[in-house]
């Protein structure tokens, strides 16, 4: 099936599925099933930010492994959902944890390393979300690809944020760290082969 035919068919259910974690968490909180709503919303949004970042980074390797080239058309949607969940995560922190208190926010970012790297990850992702359109691709030309390499340090900061946050049970953040390492090493190997 040509790319312009199968891609929209895949995008619609993918868009709906990407919203399921948000809807599920909201339903639990509104329905009173959550013992600690703020913690549940924070953890769910943080987890799904990392999941969508890893999915975004996996698109190129999957294409190189033989999946249809049109799969690249899913990358922008996955990246924007990563930013959506990162924004929800950041908003919960600002509104429910810090109560929009500027002094408290600045103090917290400067005092707690896991908050610092989390804030850095969100800051790095913001220009990527803003410039994700075809219009920005045309304006920035080659610089667009250079700018969007910020996803690598952003993902690394996100994983480090999670590792420093949990402190004790590191199983889940280490799974993310392992997957991210594999994806980054893959890119390095492919880049080295192309240079050779």
Strand content: under 5%
Q: Percentage of helical residues?
A: over 70%
Mean of pLDDT: 93
Task: Name the poorly predicted regions.
Answer: none
Number of strands: 0
What is the tally of helical segments?
9
What is the overall silhouette?
globular
Q: What is the CATH architecture assignment?
A: Up-down Bundle
Radius of gyration: 18 Å
| N-to-C SSE string, H for helix and E for strand | HHHHHHHHH
Whole-number count of domains = 1
Largest sheet: none
Broad structural category: mainly alpha
Distance between the termini: 35 Å
CATH class label: Mainly Alpha
Briefly note the CATH topology name.
Four Helix Bundle (Hemerythrin (Met), subunit A)
Care to give the gist of this entry?
82% of the residues lie in helices and 0% in strands. The relative contact order is 0.10. Helix 1 packs antiparallel against helix 2, helix 1 packs parallel to helix 3 and helix 2 runs antiparallel to helix 3.
What does this structure look like?
- By secondary structure, the protein is mostly helical.
- The chain has one domain: Four Helix Bundle (Hemerythrin (Met), subunit A), CATH 1.20.120.
- Helix content is 82%, strand content 0%.
- The protein has 9 helices and no strands.
- α3 packs across α5.
State the main characteristics.
196 residues; mainly alpha; Four Helix Bundle (Hemerythrin (Met), subunit A); 82% helix
SSE inventory with pairings:
Elements: H1 3-30, H2 37-64, H3 75-97, H4 102-111, H5 113-130, H6 134-140, H7 142-147, H8 151-166, H9 171-195
Helix pairs in contact: 1-2, 1-3, 2-3, 2-8, 2-9, 3-5, 4-5, 5-8, 8-9
């Amino acid at each position: 099936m040509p790319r312009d035919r199968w891609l929209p068919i895949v995008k619609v259910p993918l868009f709906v599925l990407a919203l399921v974690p948000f809807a599920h968490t909201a339903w639990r909180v509104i329905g009173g099933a959550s013992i600690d709503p703020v913690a549940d919303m924070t953890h769910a949004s943080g987890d799904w930010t990392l999941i969508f970042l890893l999915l975004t980074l996996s698109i190129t390797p999957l294409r190189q492994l033989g999946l249809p080239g049109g799969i690249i058309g899913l990358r922008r949607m996955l990246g924007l959902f990563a930013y959506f969940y990162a924004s929800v995560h950041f908003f919960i922190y600002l509104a429910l944890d810090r109560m929009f208190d500027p002094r408290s926010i600045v103090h917290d970012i400067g005092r707690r390393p896991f908050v610092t790297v989390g804030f850095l990850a969100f800051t790095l992702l913001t220009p990527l979300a803003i410039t994700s359109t075809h219009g920005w691709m045309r304006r920035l030309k080659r610089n667009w690809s250079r700018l969007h390499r910020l996803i690598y340090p952003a993902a690394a900061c996100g994983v480090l944020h999670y590792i420093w946050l949990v402190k004790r049970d590191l199983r889940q953040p280490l799974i993310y760290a392992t997957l991210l390492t594999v994806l980054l090493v893959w890119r390095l190997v492919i880049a080295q082969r192309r240079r050779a």
